[in-house]
């Protein structure tokens, strides 16, 4: 369940990144195929679509008009993508627990990441802080998905 919670936590900062990470890993065959796995995530079109949405989010986050991640729609998106990503890194018999862990971590991580970003933006600006946050979150999601895939294949 740790991988499910950690991948969900990355959704707290970038809602589409964990979904793109698990979909790309599934499409590349890096997540083991098990009964109950969300096979639709392995579809190359889904992987390309989630990656495009994640890239769009990375770009849009730097815009002055970007809403805060803690607005209701932002929290709803994080809850949903955290749940899906969390479930995808859980064993089939633990899929619901993985979804809860991912969703909960996504919502809980939204607030401290938002606060940290707001505080650092005062000194370093929106674009610089956003690029650093992007690198941290994309790297963390890739790392967690890789470690989660390894744990699932045991």
UniProtKB/TrEMBL annotation:
DUF4126 domain sequence ranges: 3-141
Pfam families tied to this protein: DUF4126
Keyword vocabulary terms for this entry: Membrane, Signal, Transmembrane, Transmembrane helix
Organism superkingdom: Bacteria
InterPro entries per record: DUF4126
Position of the signal peptide: 1-20
TM region positions: 97-115, 135-153
Name the UniProt record assigns to this protein: DUF4126 family protein
Species of origin: Sphingomonas ginkgonis
């Amino acid at each position: 369940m740790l991988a499910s919670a950690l991948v969900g936590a990355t959704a707290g900062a970038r809602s589409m990144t964990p979904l793109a990470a698990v979909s790309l890993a599934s499409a590349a065959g890096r997540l083991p195929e098990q009964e109950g796995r969300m096979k639709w995530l392995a579809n190359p079109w889904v992987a390309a679509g989630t990656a495009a949405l994640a890239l769009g989010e990375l770009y849009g986050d730097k815009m002055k008009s970007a809403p805060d991640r803690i607005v209701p729609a932002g929290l709803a998106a994080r809850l949903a993508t955290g749940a899906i990503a969390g479930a995808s890194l859980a064993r089939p018999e633990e899929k619901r627990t993985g979804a809860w862990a991912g969703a909960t971590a996504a919502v809980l991580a939204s607030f401290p990441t938002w606060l940290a970003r707001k505080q650092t933006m005062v000194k370093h600006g929106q674009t610089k802080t956003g690029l650093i946050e992007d690198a941290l979150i994309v790297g963390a999601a890739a790392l967690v998905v890789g470690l989660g895939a390894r744990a699932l294949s045991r």
